[in-house]
Automatic annotation (TrEMBL):
Keywords: Disulfide bond, Repeat, Signal. InterPro entries: Myxo_disulph_rpt (IPR011936). The keyword rRNA processing does not apply. It comes from Enhygromyxa salina. Residues 15-50 are annotated as: Disordered. Pfam families: DUF4215. This is Multiple EGF-like-domain protein 3. Residues 25-37 have a biased composition (Acidic residues).
Length: 399
């Protein structure tokens, strides 16, 4: 405590200096003799403060030496943190209150990020360290997904809000997370249902032939696009009149229930191993038919055969190395090919077009007639019209 000396005045009238909390006049802590304290927490000066004599209600009195920035405050108390006076060289600030949420905290130092005190209106958090992964960053803001720092509960953090990359919502991307990963997934609906529009595990859009029956869209799905089994590429159960000839069940299927058109309304061939000027189904194909301009040799020879595929007519068969004449004859109900075929010029002007035999395009692994230009032509226009005298003008089959 600053006090008057009973000795020489050469020492300025003081023997020692210590610090004490303001408001304790006699130092016993019981309040008697303590000076009055104002609303700000700063102790009010006694009536004789400043006369250079330490009275009972004073801790020190330097007279004119009392200072707001010195050892003895203007109210004659020894400088202490919380007295409302900034003691020069010892304190950075002193706002006269014990609050640690304002600009002056702790032992009268200026508030800073990392001091362990959350400053109102300035900081959102302050945990007193510079660990970026504990939920409060070194900038005193809460760790969030997208800040580039992996916080507790995060598997990754690539510093962006893009949910189409490998780290959506700060978790490693996977099929079923509900986010469509660019370049990897077609869809991702966040569930494991295989009956909706997005297939689980693979995250591809549902389609007929994927092996999963899509609710409200498909009645069957056997995982293939074969049109000769019980579930054709329509993903509806096969039936007579659907346009698909079911293997070992139907001779033909022309997609209608009309009798006397070469394929009966019970899907039986009405040609019976004889050429006709009417359409006769090529059994085993998908709606491919043959008719003749005229018939000779008791129905065994067809003159200028024409092919129909679905609802498109005008197909002109031409000479080609992949033509399977025996198969063609058998599809029309004959036992085989007699070995007689002739070629010559025929009209291929649009909408007609040239054909060749194949086992791909519209029907895989089934021999049928294909568009000479680009292959497929089921219910499509024919594209090749440059006939050059190698068109089939007659063929004879074996009864």
């Amino acid at each position: 405590m600053l006090s008057c000396s009973s000795g020489s005045v050469d020492d300025g009238g003081f023997a020692s200096f210590t610090t004490a909390m303001p408001g304790d006049g006699d130092g016993d802590g019981d309040g008697d003799g303590d000076a009055e304290t104002g609303d700000t927490g700063t102790t009010t000066a006694g009536p004789n403060c400043g006369d250079g004599v330490v009275d009972p209600d004073e801790q020190c009195d330097l007279g004119e030496g009392n200072s707001a920035s010195g050892q003895c405050t203007p109210n004659c108390f020894i400088a202490a943190c919380g007295d409302g006076f900034v003691y020069e060289g010892f304190e950075e600030c002193d706002d006269g209150n014990p609050q640690n949420t304002d600009a002056c905290v702790g032992d009268c130092v200026l508030a800073t990020c990392g001091d362990g005190y959350v400053q109102d209106g300035v900081e959102e958090c302050d945990d007193g360290n510079d660990d970026e992964t504990d939920g409060c960053t070194s900038e005193c803001t809460p760790g969030t997904c997208g800040d580039g720092v992996i916080q507790a509960g995060e598997q990754c953090d690539d510093g962006n809000a893009d949910t189409s990359d490998t780290c959506p919502a700060c978790q490693f991307a996977f099929c079923g997370d509900g986010y469509v990963q660019a370049g990897v997934e077609q869809c991702d609906d966040g569930n494991e249902l295989d009956t909706d529009a997005c297939i689980p595990i693979t995250c591809v859009e549902a389609f007929c032939g994927d092996g999963h029956i899509q609710d409200g869209t498909e009645t069957c799905d056997d995982g293939n696009l074969e049109d000769t089994d019980a579930c054709p590429s329509s993903c509806e159960p096969a039936y007579c009149g659907d346009g698909f000839a079911q293997e070992d069940v139907e001779d033909c299927d022309d997609g209608n229930n009309i009798d006397n058109d070469g394929c009966s309304n019970t899907c039986e061939s009405q040609c019976g191993g004889s050429f006709s000027v009417d359409w006769c189904p090529q059994v085993g194909t998908m709606e491919q038919f043959t008719r003749c301009e005229s018939v000779q040799n008791g129905g065994n020879t067809c003159i200028n055969p024409e092919i129909r595929y679905g609802n498109v007519t005008g197909g002109i068969p031409r000479q080609h190395g992949s033509n399977q004449y025996a198969t063609w004859c058998q599809q029309l109900g004959f036992s085989g090919y007699a070995g007689n075929v002739a070629y010559g010029p025929r009209d291929c002007a649009a909408p007609k077009g040239g054909l060749f035999g194949c086992t791909s395009y519209d029907e895989n692994n089934i021999w049928h007639w294909c568009d000479w230009q680009d292959g497929p032509w089921y219910n499509q226009q024919l594209d090749y019209h440059a006939c050059n005298s190698t068109e089939i003008t007659s063929i004879t089959c074996t009864p």
